[in-house]
Please model this.
Amino acid sequence: MWTITDTMTKKDIHKWVLVIIFIHMEDIKKFIEERFTPTVQEDKNGMKVVFTAPMTEGTIWFERAKRGWNKKPLSTNTYIIVDAEMVHMLDFLNRYYNLTEDHYQDVRKLLIQMGMDVMDKHLNVGE
Model:
């Protein structure tokens, strides 16, 4: 059980917890990279990144960005995320990391960031 000493304030405890969460997220990222194979697939609706493992998968869907969606000029290879199906991946990760609903948002952000990285590599393969 934790006790607060004279040298440790509540603020210090929160910083320590953030470090533990950050390290935990790095472990989860490494786990995903080792066990899931990301592939990019294209169909009539756009593109998707599929993270596949032997017993589960997760999908992030992308569509070509339209000029009216933002005020900045768009390059020819600009895609945005329109949906993500991560329930099975989150359940799979929960078996190893005992995730709670509080962790799911951070893990979703990590998965989406990894999906965007895969998509960037796929689109910029010839550059």
Q: What stands out?
A: The longest helix spans residues 10-35. Residues 11-123 form one domain.
